Amino acid sequence: MLFLFLFIIIVYTVIYFVILNTQERELRNLVSQEAGYIETLLGKNNQSDLRGIQNQEVIFAGVDQSFYYVINSNREVVMGSEANPRLRPELLSFVYKHMSNDQDVQNEVIRMDEKLRKGRGGFRAPDQNQDIHMMIASHGVYYKGQYIGQIYIGKDVSFAYRLFHWVLVILIVLGFVFVGVAVFISLRMSKRAMVPIKSAFKRQREFVGDASHELRTPLSVLLSSVDAMDMTIDTQKDEMASKLLANMREEVKRMTNLVSDLLTLARSDSNTIELKKEEFDLRPLAEKAIESLHPIAASKQIQLGLNSTDIFTVIGDPQRLSQLIYILLDNAIKYTPDGGEVKLNLLKEGREVRIMVQDTGIGIKKEDYHKIFERFYRTDKSRSRQIGGHGLGLSIAKWIVETHKGTIQVTSVLGKGSTFIVKLPDYD
Ligand code: ADP
């Protein structure tokens, strides 16, 4: 587009200068030729006064000039003629404006007002309603080296200006046509180019989904085998084996969680998860989440609290909203040092349902507010890995909130704590 624009400007400028320069050159040649002719005539007749050749035949030919005037050094018109006599005052005003004894070319515009348009004898302009662009060339007339007057020849170059106008219109139209064609072709090409990319992306998503799905069964077999082995060994006698089994159980559980998160996200990408939309009381589900997380919180002496009305009715998918609460509470406990506090508030604000999880934890930097909702993003990788995070929890939380047409936000003060606020529309 930029090149096309530059091309239009260059073509237009070249045409403009080539045409005007040609006209100017022709007019310059003519005026100097005529000045020479007058000087020869004066010499032949031994006349130092231009009035002496007033009645001589002075020929102006070769160019369709619109007027010529020969003016002596007293600014009197000695000879002159014009295609449209009504324009004489106007033309003379141009001539006097630029009176000089040098060679000169100037461009003037005659505004065609009512006064000039009326009357007989048309000026040489194809359309009387248009202004006339006049190119005026002048040349000094000398007798024995002394300046005695000036000759002016004017030419109507309106046709050139009309040509420039049309060239510009045509170039702009062509420009639009080319842009349209270019946009059309690029859209078609990009659509074609997107086909393999889309299918590769789809295959990749399917692979993640399938792999996660396939991994779930061996992992659950592994977990039950570890449990079975744990039951068969004598923990008192074989302390080492018992420790190893405990580690194995932890790792298998972590892997199971990761695989289940990956599966959830892969399914959310391919839109294969159907969410329920039912009216239910969220309070019992919130209590259940708190109950199941209580042992972890207690191990860190974290106070876990719930603030909600007795019945907190919402509309949505119970399983997913419960998972959302679980993710937010789990994070709050994970990222709050021992002895802290984590609170879950269920509120109704106007026509909005709010789920708020507040903690007195490590806090989040402002620049990370958006990034933490990206997949696999962790503000502190080593710390997060140590406490069992793999950076998918908040991506799932965001997906759950968005499928419920809500929003999730975080506000935080580093070292003091964070608050995650989920706003869901109340469908009542
Ligand atoms: P992870 O499994 O690592 O916790 P998440 O997606 O749940 O993954 O969270 C992404 C990152 O956001 C975490 O690694 C952590 O850095 C930050 N984060 C989430 N919740 C909190 C919180 N309550 N306090 C401080 N940081 C948090």
Automatic annotation (TrEMBL):
<dbReference type="InterPro" id="IPR036097">
    <property type="entry name" value="HisK_dim/P_sf"/>
</dbReference>
<keyword id="KW-0547">Nucleotide-binding</keyword>
<dbReference type="InterPro" id="IPR005467">
    <property type="entry name" value="His_kinase_dom"/>
</dbReference>
<keyword id="KW-0902">Two-component regulatory system</keyword>
<keyword id="KW-0418">Kinase</keyword>
<dbReference type="Pfam" id="PF02518">
    <property type="entry name" value="HATPase_c"/>
</dbReference>
<keyword id="KW-0067">ATP-binding</keyword>
<dbReference type="Pfam" id="PF00512">
    <property type="entry name" value="HisKA"/>
</dbReference>
<dbReference type="GO" id="GO:0004721">
    <property type="term" value="F:phosphoprotein phosphatase activity"/>
</dbReference>
<dbReference type="InterPro" id="IPR036890">
    <property type="entry name" value="HATPase_C_sf"/>
</dbReference>
<dbReference type="InterPro" id="IPR003661">
    <property type="entry name" value="HisK_dim/P_dom"/>
</dbReference>
<feature type="transmembrane region" description="Helical">
    <location>
        <begin position="163"/>
        <end position="187"/>
    </location>
</feature>
<dbReference type="GO" id="GO:0016036">
    <property type="term" value="P:cellular response to phosphate starvation"/>
</dbReference>
<dbReference type="GO" id="GO:0005524">
    <property type="term" value="F:ATP binding"/>
</dbReference>
<feature type="domain" description="Histidine kinase">
    <location>
        <begin position="210"/>
        <end position="428"/>
    </location>
</feature>
<keyword id="KW-1133">Transmembrane helix</keyword>
<dbReference type="GO" id="GO:0000155">
    <property type="term" value="F:phosphorelay sensor kinase activity"/>
</dbReference>
<keyword id="KW-0597">Phosphoprotein</keyword>
<dbReference type="InterPro" id="IPR004358">
    <property type="entry name" value="Sig_transdc_His_kin-like_C"/>
</dbReference>
<dbReference type="GO" id="GO:0005886">
    <property type="term" value="C:plasma membrane"/>
</dbReference>
<protein>
    <recommendedName>
        <fullName>histidine kinase</fullName>
        <ecNumber>2.7.13.3</ecNumber>
    </recommendedName>
</protein>
<dbReference type="InterPro" id="IPR003594">
    <property type="entry name" value="HATPase_dom"/>
</dbReference>
<keyword id="KW-0472">Membrane</keyword>
<dbReference type="InterPro" id="IPR050351">
    <property type="entry name" value="BphY/WalK/GraS-like"/>
</dbReference>
<keyword id="KW-0812">Transmembrane</keyword>
<keyword id="KW-0808">Transferase</keyword>
